[in-house]
Amino acid sequence: MNKNLLWRGLLILAVVAGSLAVAYPPEKKINLGLDLQGGMHLVLQVHTEDALRAETDSDMARFIESAKEKGVPNLQGRRTGDSEFVIAGGGTGQAWDVLNDLVRNSRWEIDRRGNDAVFSMLSQGVAEVRNGAVNQAVRTINNRIDQFGVAEPSVVPTATGHRIVMQLPGVDDPERVRQLIKNTAFLEFRIVRYPQGGGGVGSREEILANYGGQLPPNLEILDGDQLDSQGQVVGTSYYAVEKVRTVTGRDLKSANSARGQFGNPIVEFTLSPEGSAAFGDLTGRNVGSGLAIVLDGRVVSAPVVRSRIDNRGQIEGGFTVQEADDLSNVLRSGALPASITYLEERTVGPSLGRDSIEKGLKAGLIGTALVVLYMLIVYNLSGLNAVTALALNIALLFGGLAAFNATLTLPGIAGVILTIGMAVDANVLIFERIREELRAGRTVRSSIDLGFEKALSSIVDSNVTTLIAAIFLFQFGTSSIKGFAVTLTIGLLASMFTAVFVSRWLFDVVLSRMRIQKLSI
Asked: Whole-model pTM above 0.70?
């Protein structure tokens, strides 16, 4: 065997050995999709109007604060729509000039309504906030699902409708996933003004009575669960807390579940440098007052501030171990920018997945057997060449799936079967060309050389056009269609390698070892 054949053989051996090593054992290296493994399929609606309201409130407060810094104090604003707010008295004198200057080059437009200034968000700004809310929701949900441990999750936004499509293979606790996804987990720290010690009272009326029936404008009433010594809910407690949100979950640096002083599950948190400074000022000014830890609008706990607290603290709320783990996960991944609802939910059981795998394998084996039988009958011993190349092609295909961490779906199995057919299609083109050259009276070696040379353009053309179609399917298809496109693409590249390079090497090896006057084809 000459050196050229040796090096080509070593290259083929290295590629095949590498593919087998990457794909072994297949049950651990090949990721199965939702339709094969079982799991959850969810369609979520993101209520982007929540994000619009939050942005409107934030910008309103920013404009009022900026106007105050420019010498226009005591302005009052109120939101009148999802993307509209009014500043009372802002339509006159210096206030109008200052607000006009502030709104320039922003996403807001301003108009007069009597003595008031009316702010409306531009349509481009509305679209940016809505799309940003969906994209942020996708990132947040991805973070939560990653920490939950779901293998190969798919979380993608739809092109329209502000919706998110999720596929979570292998999920065995759907209810926990629903709660983990839907929980907004917006954390706030607020000072409790009544009761002073932060312990909570039994009714709203008691709080109102303390303030003479009228709650001060800087306070609001929040409720929370009243727990017994075993952490069980026995009632509801009410608190009068400041509306000011000095420190929120956005100031968190990290959060982890832990055990408290008496072994109860708690969540420990660390604040960012900016959050630490604000938290230190807040607690330093309110030693002896209750500090309400508010999660999604409800008071989880309200401990008394004994001394200044800077960069770290604890959240206690009668949690179970799983609830503490989930809460720390949600806090780490960030709050959802808007509320969500479930539009569609499907659960695929593992038994259905196993049935799909069995039927897919059966179809693949039958298809492969028929192809092998056809090649051996029609092309005699030369068919062994095509069968060998086909076997290597399948090995390369599964090696590619494992190497790229791709997910095998039921349509992906269809892609494998299609790849088998296209792999031998190239061999059929080559063998028929060789037959033509043999019938023209050329020698065996010359016929093989010309057969591969003349068939190459047709092989490249058919594979490239199919590859372009697969790329479009991957770009614009759903997750299942993408699985088909990925499998087909890897299979096409593998078949090009085996049909042209490996098959030619096998012919050359046989020709170099023996003098063949007649080719069985």
From this structure: no
